[in-house]
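ESCALATION

Customer reports they have been waiting on this structure for their group meeting. Please prioritize. Original submission:
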Amino acid sequence: MTPDHSVGGIFITFEGIDGSGKSTQARRLADRLRGLGRDVLLTREPGGSPGAEEIRALLLTGNPDRWSAETEILLFTAARRDHLEKTINPALAAGRIVISDRFADSTRVYQGATRGDLRSMVDRLHSLMIGREPDLTFVIDMDPATALKRGLERSSGEDRFEDFGLGFQETLRHGFLALAHANALRCVLIDGNRDPDQIGSEVAAHALARHGTPT
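Update from on-call: job pushed to the front of the queue and completed.
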């Protein structure tokens, strides 16, 4: 079963390595657009619906070797399918702007490109079970050592991927850069090694220009 694409909203996602500041920028953009009178839903992955939030706890906690990459792909896809059915598609159908902190690009990089040559598996599952891409994706690029330090300092308890270490984060960064360049029509690469206000201003300018939101 494939999702219904006859929707009228705008779907924006934020991607990047752990600690890159994408969650902060997703919130900032949501607040900016709400201030302009737009109806915005801010959500996240894994999560964003009750069932997906339960799967989030399985994925982001525990020992780094808790799941194989293949099992992670299945769990992320299950969470994303529930998120899509219960949260994203209904909001888009109502004409809302949906801003998600992560979506399918994270699975393409985290499981598909860095934990074995599994990208084709990720793409096949995405085509079969998800079938949707964002209208606009911001990839926040940041120095991996700085981002990892920031991520670990949060002590959120959801640090399973940070626990893979700096080498893993460096590999992730290269994966996101390659993805952004390969999808240049959809992705905007943002330098995250700056003041959050500067980053937020650039993100908002791109979003407003791309989708004609009145200033």
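Sent to customer with the following note: The chain has one domain: 10-211.
Escalation resolved.
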